[in-house]
């Protein structure tokens, strides 16, 4: 989770995207409650990375639906990204973020991990 959070490449699942949204909202709420001037250099130097992170994570969440990252700019599309599960299969944006622990990929991983660990008799 949170591998390359500022990159626009790849896919992420709902939990990672929801955590990103909560952190973003907490930072914005804290800055507004403390009374920091939004135009100050300190505020701008903290807000720009926060928006970059939110846009990058949103693009990766859109990729989980096999959509371009631009889809996140549609009003209320964020509700879909927070509530709906992504596609479980690989797509042109990469592998799903969380593979099933009982699927064919998991059994293949177990076989690969067991190489060299079995006794030869």
Give a structural overview.
- Helix 1 runs antiparallel to helix 2 (41-64).
- This protein has one domain (14-114).
- It has four helices and no strands.
- The longest helix has 24 residues, at 41-64.
- The mean pLDDT is 84.
- The protein has 121 residues and is mainly alpha-helical.
Key descriptive features of the protein:
121 residues, mainly alpha, 4 helices, elongated
Radius of gyration: 19 Å
The first-to-last residue Cα distance is 41 Å
Provide the helix percentage: 40-55%
Structural class: mainly alpha
Count of DSSP H/I helices: 4
Number of strands: 0
Low-confidence stretches: none
How many domains comprise the coordinates?
1
> What summary fits the major beta sheet?
none
**Strand percentage:** under 5%
Shape: elongated
Mean pLDDT over the full residue set? 84
**Order of helix and strand elements from N to C terminus:** HHHH
Reconstruct the topology from this structure:
Blueprint: H1 14-34, H2 41-64, H3 77-83, H4 104-114
Helix pairs in contact: 1-2
Quick summary of this structure?
By secondary structure, the chain is mostly helical. Helix content is 52%, strand content 0%.
